[in-house]
Structures
1.
Amino acid sequence: MQAIDSVLAQTFTDYEIFVIDDGSNDGTQDALRHYRGRINFLQQANQGPEIARNLAAREAKGEYLAMLDSDDMLMPCALETYDQALRNFNSPPILIGSMLYFSDENDLPQKGPGSDGIEIMQYRDFLSKDVTIGLSNSRIVVSRSLFEKVGGARHSSPATFHCDDFHLMLKIGTYGPCLVVRRPVTVAYRCHDFNSVRSVKPLARGVCALIRSEHRGEYPGGLRRKFARYACIGGIAQLWVRKAWRARQYRDSFILLLYSFPMVTAAVFKKIFTKFFQKTALVLFRRHNRRSAIHINS
């Protein structure tokens, strides 16, 4: 419920919330009764988060879709920061929020935008970014029209949705401009024993699914942007090669490294190159209003 409460506590108030019950059996519907009138509650059989996001996107009326997983939280300034950024950069189709990791609510800062300003990095598109960020669905803000244009999220399952955030960003990776928020922090990512990212084998398979999608030509940009896509996939691949090795899943680690080696190589080259050409833009904004749609997977 903290995810919903974090949206209701936003300093920006012109939004709609969609909460998707993905076939839960933990009393979610009863727990949400006291939110009646403040949220849009949708239900589906257990089909996984990508199907849930597609369901909410079809119902949304807002111009932008902001994802939020049920164990994460929005900082009070998040939607206000996004609104100001989108308005001052002429409504770009993609924005990536800033994120901190926490396990205890006492670790969360309560500072809103204003005193420290807002730092935004603008890129031609997502594939052009020259900063490394820990991607999460809860950081993604995308225009509803673009989400629909690329066909939304995959039709995956609860067993095959892993790396869904990277798949979506690769599908929209050549559209722009793309904004990356550096500060203030907009999303709090909760670390706990049941985070899906702690499951090494499914995540390694998720990376392999990205590679297969790349080989099938599912991502835009053609040969001209192939290196950028390789570097993006290689960045996440090398992470899970290391994690699989540390988890003593040596076979999975070796197979993933072998399968992703050209992409890991591209990621290393890009990291070396961009180390010397990184650019940052600091911009201070005024407050505005824009309607958004928030999707929370429960």
2.
Amino acid sequence: MQFEIKALRLSDSVVALVLDAVDESDAKAQAVAQGYTVLTVKAKQSFKALIKPRRVNFPLMLFSQELLALMSAGLTIVDAVETLAEKEVRPETRSVLQQIVSQLYEGRSLSHALQGLPAVFPPLYVSTVRASEKTGDLTEALTRYIVYQTQVDVVRKKVVSASIYPLVLLGAGGLVTIFLMAYVVPRFSRIYEDIGTNLPFMSRLLLQWGKLIETHGLMVLVLLVAVVAAFVYVAAQPAARNWVMQCVWRIPAAGERMRVYQLTRFYRTLGMLLKGGTPIGQSLKMVSDLLDSGLRVQLQSASGKINEGRSISYAMETHRLTTPVALRMLRVGERTGQMGEMMERIANFHDEEMARWVEWFTRLFEPLLMAIIGMVIGLIVVLMYLPIFDLAGSLQ
């Protein structure tokens, strides 16, 4: 992103600069590094910026993989990040890497450098790196995070891929319905007007809708676009999404699946932090945002019991943050001292269970959706031809 900066030179003359930076603080830091005294900083307005949300699109997964490869080849952390910065062609990404390099040259730790860029590096990533700096196993920590993120992405991709075909069906069915109502039905209505026959009530209602769409097509189109735009706007609001999620949570089967899905992410992330050496109290605070508001309250109560000296399995069971399988594995982890590994096994078990459920639901839902769309389109066609059938019957 580009930023417009007004600054003072050493000669006290005001100059205007345009710099590529991640955010305002990054732009200010670049100007100060060049010897300027910054007066004002503001984002440069452009048509692209107006139609696209301003966010830092940093390839965190690719960065982790490349950094791991370079460090495994024997490069130091400074040389590795500097190599990545030199080969990078995207200005925003190069700016982020250069900031990290400058912090490292000043003697700061990698976690401190990453913590200064919260828009790019999430707290989970920073905590993983910080914990590895205490033990000196940064490569293992990066490997652990890459595996973690890969597993999370696999589950997300399964859910997304399962929803693509139903969306395509809905889109195709909607387009066919619009074509029938806007083009075919109005022409049938003119034919029936010329014949002058009495029409069944449902056919007459359908034909009136078709005539309305044909007569006021532009108005209907504008209204349809406005409704879609309003729906998209409302769907983008956090309050609306929370309300929808609360409604879904009240559905017994769907709510239980969502609870298990959130607990799966919770245990996977918590297990990764514990394996990296992060204390349990700090880990629970960091992963609380992964849970719904209701489960978050339960986690706070469970954290209180853990801080009082209760076992993790007891605290989680008391506040309904386990499943039968998870509870047994947590108890095994407490006996063996391998709590991090057990939490990852809990997540793997429920990931496989969720994958089977998504596959079963998709196989059931897709035929039902096709049947509903076929019934809607078939009903429109039957209502259009019903007067012809009645006329043929009267002629006989």
3.
Amino acid sequence: MNRRLQELIEGRIADAEALGRRRSTVRVDWGEGAEATVDGQPAVVFCSNDYLGLRQHPALVEAVRVAATREGTGSGSSRLIAGTGSSHEALEQELAAQFGTEAALVFSSGYHANLALLTTLAGEGDRIFSDELNHASIVDGCRLSRAAVHVFRHGDVEGLRDGLAEPAGGRSWVVAEGLYSMDGDRVDLAGYAGVAGRAGASMIVDEAHAIGVLGPDGGGVSAEQGVHGDVIRMGTLGKALGSHGAFVLCEAAVRELLVNGARSLLYTTALPPTSVAAARAALTVARQERWRQRRVIRHAETLWEGVRAAGFHTTEEPSPVVPVVVGGEWDCVTLAERLLARGYFTRAIRPPTVPEHTCRLRLSVSAAHTTEQIEGLLVALQEEAQALDRAREEDEGES
């Protein structure tokens, strides 16, 4: 590396450090359930997206073993070359049946799926109306689509209606999430869908954090609000369903268009048979063990109520994602470090992932958690936050 490039890189890292935004990977060696060793520290994990606790389920592990033995460990190709097997087709049929849609298409990740939807369906001359808190994959898909992008205020149905009322020549699209992964809240998808439908616009909903957990039969927030038949949905296999990859739930004609034009499908290696097998097993387990969905909802309510009772700023209703808004970068990082020292692992979420001055601990619950683990986290959270407040007051008094 030449000296000028090295100085540039070191300068950018130093800038991130000065702002309290330098990031690093953390080594997590999983044990049973929600327990792990985090950089050598035994801890209960409260930042995983394994909502239904399926990642280590014996049925999924056995399905992976059988698939690896029969089909090998990789797909070896993209979907349109030699990467589509009978198991991929079976998974897509099962997804469509389980979540009540005409067709489904599997992708290598949620990022790939959102890029595919936005860059294939929308284009030059069209308009995309995107909720301001949408995920980075949606933001990037909007940018790459060449459509005119209109970002509207989070949850603002009236603002969306006013924007759609403006005359336009091309097609209009509305894109939102079911459960927002950093805020843990739901928007009025029914309201969004209503104004979109009256304006002749189509709607895409990212259900990554809701599929399998929220709504009837785990159909997501769009199913919870009764609009799943009116929208194109994206869901992931790597969160509640304990595998890897993602999928689009749509009409057969939309699937056909994606197969013929989605660059993030055409030019990426297909999911390996092991991931497909795990996902198929997860669909069966989720359907047969509905108690998992009920348990994670109960845990979410317990954690949410405890966070609110302790005086922290969080969401207005419970969900599997419970943010604890701390404010500044250093306070948030310090609180996360204090919790890890007590055996509870969560991460400090900082800009640009969240807006300035809203740094938070993003707590997430799983069916693998116990009530005792959640109660222990709440005690530790309140005690360590109070200790942090006292330390800050002492520092201010000395200065």
